[in-house]
């Protein structure tokens, strides 16, 4: 074999060895990339499972408006079902049913300016009283709100319930739903809340405020009354159709 042929043979052998080495390197790289992709896929699946479990278990993650309600009521005193400074000279009383869609509309459109202005400034306070007229589920819903009020979260419960209100007569007011509202509302002791909402004492309060609304001649929800220096006791004002009408009633009662 000539020197030239020998050099060509060695060159071909070197190229063949380099090609085999390159192929092995590419194969190892593909294996590593495949393993990384598989690991990433497993991570994504795990995350999706956790998210799905959190969403199906109730609580804050499944509710609308938790942060909004917290911000709306932040810094305003609460005692029982009364929102506002205890020394406010005028009180607005709302008789409502938590399942009532019109009450939901008032909570979202009519009452917020009153809360932000007259209530936050200390001029007035609002007392929510249950008037259970929709169906049998209105009573446990109302009792749950009263029980939340006993831990200083009554109005958080009411506002959050309205933001997550279901369709009337669909039996959405389950123990799981009420518990998620209570947790989202920030009720500190859920075990105590669970016991209180089912107690004879709290259920009797719901029945008493419903009977009071009927005595005042109210036939629907929400219905309102005012009390202050300008009234002789509790003065029914029906269902004012605007924020301005409510503010006017409060001004006259002061």
Report on the architecture of this protein:
With 254 residues, the protein is α+β, with helices and mostly antiparallel strands. It contains nine helices and six strands. The chain has helices at 3-56, 66-73, 101-119, 138-149, 154-163, 175-184, 190-197, 200-215, 243-253, and strands at residues 78-79, 82-83, 90-96, 124-130, 223-227, 235-238. It has a six-stranded mixed sheet. Strand 1 and strand 2 form a beta hairpin. Helix 4 packs antiparallel against helix 5 and helix 4 packs across helix 7 (190-197). It is elongated. The model is unreliable at 36-61 (pLDDT under 50).
Offer a few descriptive terms.
elongated; single chain; 254 residues; six-stranded mixed sheet; 11% strand; Glutaredoxin; 2 domains; alpha+beta
Percentage of residues in helical conformation: 55-70%
**What is the number of independent domains?**
2
What class would the helix/strand composition place it in? alpha+beta
Taken as a percent bin, the fraction of beta residues is 5-15%
For CATH, the homologous superfamily of the largest domain is named as Glutaredoxin
Strand order of the largest sheet: 1-2-4-3-5-6
User: Overall 3D geometry?
Assistant: elongated
In total, the number of strands is 6
What is this structure's SSE topology?
Layout: H1 3-56, H2 66-73, E1 78-79, E2 82-83, E3 90-96, H3 101-119, E4 124-130, H4 138-149, H5 154-163, H6 175-184, H7 190-197, H8 200-215, E5 223-227, E6 235-238, H9 243-253
Parallel strand pairs: 3-4
Antiparallel strand pairs: 1-2, 2-4, 3-5, 5-6
Helix pairs in contact: 2-5, 4-5, 4-7, 4-8, 5-6
């Amino acid at each position: 074999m000539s020197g030239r042929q020998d050099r060509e043979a060695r060159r071909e052998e070197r190229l063949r060895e380099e090609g085999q080495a390159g192929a092995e390197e590419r194969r190892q790289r593909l294996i590593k990339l495949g393993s990384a992709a598989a690991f990433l896929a497993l991570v994504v699946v795990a995350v999706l499972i956790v998210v799905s479990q959190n969403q199906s278990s109730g609580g804050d993650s499944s509710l609308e408006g938790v942060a909004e309600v917290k911000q709306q009521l932040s810094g305003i005193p609460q005692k029982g079902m009364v929102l506002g400074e205890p020394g406010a000279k005028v009180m607005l009383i709302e008789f409502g049913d938590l399942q009532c869609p019109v009450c939901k509309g008032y909570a979202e459109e009519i009452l917020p300016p009153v809360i932000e202005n007259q209530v936050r400034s200390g001029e007035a306070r609002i007392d929510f009283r249950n008037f259970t007229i929709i169906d049998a589920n209105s009573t446990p819903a109302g009792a749950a709100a009263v029980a939340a009020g006993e831990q200083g979260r009554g109005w958080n419960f009411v506002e959050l319930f309205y933001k997550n209100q279901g369709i009337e007569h669909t039996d959405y007011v389950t123990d799981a739903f009420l518990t998620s509202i209570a947790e989202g509302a920030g009720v500190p002791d859920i075990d105590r809340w669970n016991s209180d909402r089912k107690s004879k004492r709290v259920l009797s309060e719901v029945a008493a405020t419903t009977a009071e609304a009927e005595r005042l001649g109210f036939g629907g929800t929400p219905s309102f009354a005012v009390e202050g220096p300008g009234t002789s006791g509790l003065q029914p004002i029906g269902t004012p159709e605007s924020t301005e009408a409510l503010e006017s009633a409060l001004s006259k009662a002061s």
